[in-house]
Amino acid sequence: MVDTTKKLTPGDIRAVFLRSNLFQGSWNFERMQALGFCFSMVPVIRRLYPENSEERKQAIKRHLEFFNTQPFVAAPVLGVTMAMEEQRANGAPIDDGAINGLKVGLMGPLAGVGDPIFWGTARPVFAALGAGIAMSGSLLGPILFFVLFNLVRLLVRYYGVAYGYRKGADIVSDMGGGLLQKMTEGASILGLFVMGALVNKWTHVNIPLVVSRVTGQDGKTAVTTVQSILDQLMPGLVPLLLTFGCMWLLRRKVNALWLIVGFFVIGIIGYWIGLLGL
User: Pfam family of this protein, just one (predicted)?
Assistant: First the structure.
């Protein structure tokens, strides 16, 4: 007896993964990522539904509905949708509402995880590491940023599609129990730890005001400055206080552009009057 069960192949998963890298290529204000989602699903639709059939046409239309989430974490949604389309093609009672309902139900929570992890943590951390190396004059800095960020992006996209397909609709229960919140908190803690370690490396403040001059018996003069006293108390104290001050101002909705302009003005005037040094 011939087995007529329709089954997606590893090649289909790879095809969806490759197409998902163009997810934002046709973003628009009407349906946002809908065209990118449909484009990514084309290999699946071709595999499951006969050419020129009504089922194929309906499947294309089904995935042109509004969709919008963080583009990297759209991968598990694609995987889940693949599994549901496969079940539907094999006769399971899954209608358009069930498929689109699951997509809409996942895109919001996943966007809430993807934005802080990738835009708020991974990208700034990798950029900080790359910039720190680039400041020493090494070309490795921007290359490191490009490689690390895209490595994470590609891994999340590929394994996200595979994981979503493997779990199917059961992925909803996996994302319960505070798992998404724990992932977000963990990524935020890691990002803050790395950025905190880079504060002293990046931020340089020198206050060369002379507090005292003491001439020793050997004729050498020992000069004590405000900066040397602060360094004895805690190296990097001023950059740390400056960072906390910026955080406080940002939380009070002060525009970051004004902070940058303010630093320029304070730096120029401070150097001109001798309060700040190089």
Answer: EIID-AGA
Mean residue pLDDT of the chain comes to 81
CA distances to 27, 61, 100, 126, 145 from 30, rounded to whole Å, are 9, 15, 17, 33, 33
Mean predicted confidence (pLDDT) in 222-234? 77
Q: Which residue has the higher pLDDT, 4 or 251?
A: 251
Query: Minimal CA–CA distance to 23: which of 124, 114, 85?
Result: 114
122 DSSP assignment = I
> Which residues face 80 on adjacent strands?
none
Q: Where are the domains of the chain?
A: 10-199, 206-273
Q: What is the pLDDT of residues 197-216, one digit of tens each?
A: 666 666 778 887 777 777 77
Say whether 52 sits in a helix, a strand or coil.
Answer: coil
Both tokens of residue 131? Answer: 């910039």
